[in-house]
Design goal:
With 396 residues, the protein is an alpha/beta fold. The protein has helices spanning 2-26, 33-56, 63-98, 102-127, 172-182, 206-210, 236-252, 291-294, 311-315, and strands spanning 135-142, 154-158, 187-191, 218-221, 256-257, 261-267, 270-276, 303-306, 324-327, 337-339, 342-344, 356-360, 363-367, 385-392. This is Metallophosphoesterase.
Amino acid sequence: MKTGLFILIAGILCVLLNDSLLFLQIRRYFKRKIYSYLFWLHSLFFVSCIVWYHLFIPSLKGPEAYFWVEKCISIILLFYTPKTLYIIVNAFSILLRKAKCIPAARIVNRLALGIALASFIVILNGITWYRYSYKIERETVCIKTLPDAFNDFRIVQLTDLHLGSYGEHYPGITKLVDEVNRLNPDLIVFTGDMVNSFASEMDPWIETLKKLKAKYGKYATTGNHDYGTYVKWSSKADQENNLKQFFKNMERADFTMLNNTNVPLVIANDTLYLAGVENWGLPPFPCFGKLTQALEGTDGYPVILLSHDPSHWRQEVLNYPVDLMLAGHTHAMQLGITIGSFRWSPAVYVYPEYNGLYTANGQQLYVSRGVGYLGFAGRIGQRPEITLIKLTNDCK
């Protein structure tokens, strides 16, 4: 209760402070009082939204809470990020004006307006079209010990779908299935975080996900969110039943779970092992992964490992004979810049391997930035990813 009250007061103060600073900077443009009234009416609207959030959101149970929290966060960011940027940049215009540098002040003022408008457009795009503008990332991965029968074997990796973040009529999931099936993969793997917390998040989408097709099947492992650890359950039994239902839902969607186990993929008497661990994470994330158990019986064969958290690679996996690990988890923070071969995301300061293909000690890691979103209902500069990996033993 105290935390909720703190968020309420802090939110209201931030809105009022931001709008007060903005009003002081632009009030000279308000030639009529009606404009001032309209400005503060819009500010009152956002204060009301924060109060509504405080009163309404805690009463929600299940996936609906995530949906509305993310929408509220996104709308506030949509309007208050541009305002904040304008206030900061335009402050230099005010200083220049006081120094009698009027032409320079006008240029900086227009720059502030341009930056604010651009940020509004970018965020609006991120929470509308961009969030299901899937990008197919094609990667050729060489495994020297790969049997010839697996040359050109095509794997589609999906991860971090976070189904509870969408409304039931969200068009992106059907589009995702269509795009994957058009690739005609040999294998589909899912590397965790199908849901935000609740198994019921899958209910509207099970039949749609069931339509994902691959010649050699669909395999998955768990992510930190799939265990429901971010929800206050009425009892431990409720949480355990939620996890059991999650596994049932994955089975209904035709996914085979690799929970600290492995499966041989066989083509023309050649074998490649696909292994998977339950979520392995550094604190505060849950750690249920048992790599030794997952790799039992794979000695002498090439191995591809599914593990949700990329930090697992350097912490443990590099000490084992795993040729390729596939991970997700980072979302590339749903924020970044990609220009040609140049890529940057603040995720790099938390996860050195946050997106793309990495190599160490002759072993490889591919980290997908994921399909879905969490917290902020969109993506900026980091399109949702469908990964298409082609295996080869031609390592020239």
